[in-house]
Design a protein that fits this description.
The structure is a homotetramer.
Chain A: H1 17-31, H2 38-45, H3 49-55, H4 59-70, H5 83-99, H6 103-114, H7 118-144, H8 154-171, H9 181-190
Helix pairs in contact in A: 1-2, 1-4, 2-3, 4-6, 5-6, 5-8, 5-9, 6-7
Chain C binds a DNA duplex through helix 2 and helix 3.
InterPro entries (chains A, B, C, D): Homeodomain-like_sf (IPR009057), HTH-type_TetR-like_transc_reg (IPR050109), HTH_TetR (IPR001647), Tet_transcr_reg_TetR-rel_C_sf (IPR036271), TetR_C (IPR011075)
Keywords (chains A, B, C, D): DNA-binding, Transcription, Transcription regulation
Protein name (chains A, B, C, D): TetR family transcriptional regulator
DNA sequence: TAGTAATCGAGACGGTACGTCACGTCTTAAG
DNA sequence: CTTAAGACGTGACGTACCGTCTCGATTACTA
């Protein structure tokens, strides 16, 4: 865990934050969103329910904090030497996040909740903006290499790539493995046009 | 509403199905998934709680029935004469669904909840499968016209198109108007590579 | 069963009264008062719930009818040649009614309900008055034999005898067997006074 | 009411125990066992339903607690100097309980329900056992005075006395006044035999 | 033998209460 | 200042029976 336990700066959480986060993520991973209850997390972490409510106003906020603390969602910035290679790496990473435990439940829970939680939505917005800015070298290099038009829109590309994976896995409940990354990227890069 | 109230065919729901569906969708749109409760829908539709439970075993089943009945989500199958035109039409429709009232709130509420509701997820799965099969003429025609490889994967294309819109609007909380459909489709079709 | 099925006199019950009564008493005997539900009795007797409600307004009324039909509670009028013998026989009979199946549940159910059902209470009143009048020969013979004062009150004696058994078995939840009849009668007849 | 509200000793019930008990007994007396519902008692006492369930697992347990708290049923232990006098006093007390308000309704409601409520029956059992043990001095003194055989069974005597009153008042719906106590006791003590 | 009541089955419904769960809040006291 | 301990109000859950109602469909007496 990565909680700053320096206690002495700003109060940034309860003393047993790590235990609470562990319980939170554990319950989430074990039984899904509904299996995680504040009471359950309190019980498992040996902390009183009121302590959790003192620091996070809702289950979703707690999940968010636990997620941030876990660093499970840190972006990767591949540099394979080609745009296609980089995008495949990014796609594989996204697929991993959305299929692996415990990230799958965590991510879907948070982003689902964002729909009716403006605050969470704002967090998600800056999270993805930050992510995109970190990924920008990938596209800058591709432009330099001549693989990408100078006026191409990295955000649109990442929307297409990430959105397709999200849509297929989360919304359409289809399956994906890392091996599905390459074909998807090829479809994306080659354009759908052109006949066989 | 479109409930068959002919009562005389097979009984397919409670007498006041329409009022129940209206209440269901209304509550969903107004406050999201959690604001919709069986008790609330019963109260608003002037029906007893037990009547709802008599016909649908869960909130999710009720939502499914209400959505199907509403026909709000019926697919469009454009035929503009070109793949690009058709895709733009599809994209505009999707953008419309995800920005207009009341569909925006309904769709996001339901699909957000699908993340931790296996039953809802199943509904969504068959819904999108059905939708894709209805859209298949678009791609068949494109293949005939030579605009699309015969072995192209329509599902992947729709994942890219719909996913990008979903990701940008719902997850990244960005804005879109119907005018954003065309550039997106062009990015998708042209491949990211070659520049203007 | 003893239902008059002569149908032609006053309508006196549903066609399948016997099946309904059997189901009623069966459920009562098997699971006690709470296990008997109108729905359950209807289901078991293969009759529609509404048919039962058409003929009896409540569960208790149904029980009453089933009981009367069953003739399980017909009084006995012993004639053993002595008051003590007769009273012992009566006591044994009462003990039998209050310990045996299904009479125990039936009797307690009906008499319990009588507490807040004036009509049932009236029925009970005439039932016991009738019973007492049928038992009166026992006391008349005892007076003739000189075993009982001419001004003795048979009702008081039966209250004492029946009440003691009822109290012990039903209210104090104690146990009794037919063998407890003789000592009880002896205590009653000898008066409590007199030392060993 | 007699709840120890000293709160500081062991917590022995909810804060508003008295209001709950009052509501419980009120509903019981007014409408009998069935008119008492946990929801009703909660509403009348201004307490939430869950609070009642937190402290008593069933309606019967609640009734038991309310009755114990009320002290309405505390036994009397007369000492008039003679067995007959003591028994008459006991009989008058019982008659009072079964004819006065609110005890009549409470007692009949509870004991009627005991017939099909094992838990209530258990409560009644220990209640009467306790009562009998408290009354035992009456019989011990009678034995010492030579009014009662040393091997006489106090339980049987109280069954006869209480049972006769119960039977006449509750089951046979007859009337009784305190003046009926003396003749009844005389019949009991003198034995039914010998005449005036 | 047909007609016409009485009776019934089927199915839905509003309603009350059940007993449970988890929520989020509060107070009091301890560390 | 933080936490524990514990009680509480609140809303909703999903279930069980209640007792009622409206229809056809059966019966079965009766003319």
């Amino acid at each position: 865990m990565h909680t700053t336990t320096h206690r002495g700066g700003r109060a940034s959480g309860p003393r047993d934050a790590e235990a609470i986060f562990a319980a939170t993520l554990g319950l989430l991973a074990e039984g899904g969103y509904d299996a995680l209850t504040v009471e359950g997390a309190a019980a498992r972490s040996g902390v009183n329910k009121t302590t959790i409510y003192r620091w996070w106003r809702s289950k979703d906020e707690l999940i968010g904090a636990a997620l941030v603390d876990s660093r499970l969602l840190e972006p990767v910035v591949p540099d394979t030497g080609s745009l296609e290679g980089d995008l495949v790496a990014l796609a594989r990473h996204i697929i991993g996040l959305l299929t692996g435990e415990p990230t799958r439940d965590l991510v879907t829970a948070v982003l689902a909740a964002a729909g009716h939680r403006p605050e969470l939505a704002r967090h998600a917005k800056v999270f993805f903006a930050d992510r995109l800015s970190k990924e920008s070298p990938v596209f800058a290099r591709a432009v330099q290499r001549g693989e990408l038009a100078a006026d191409a829109d990295p955000a649109a590309l990442m929307d297409l790539l990430g959105g397709a994976i999200w849509f297929r896995l989360v919304i359409r409940s289809d399956t994906m493995t890392p091996d599905d990354a390459a074909p998807l990227v090829r479809t994306l890069l080659s354009g759908a046009a052109r006949s066989s």
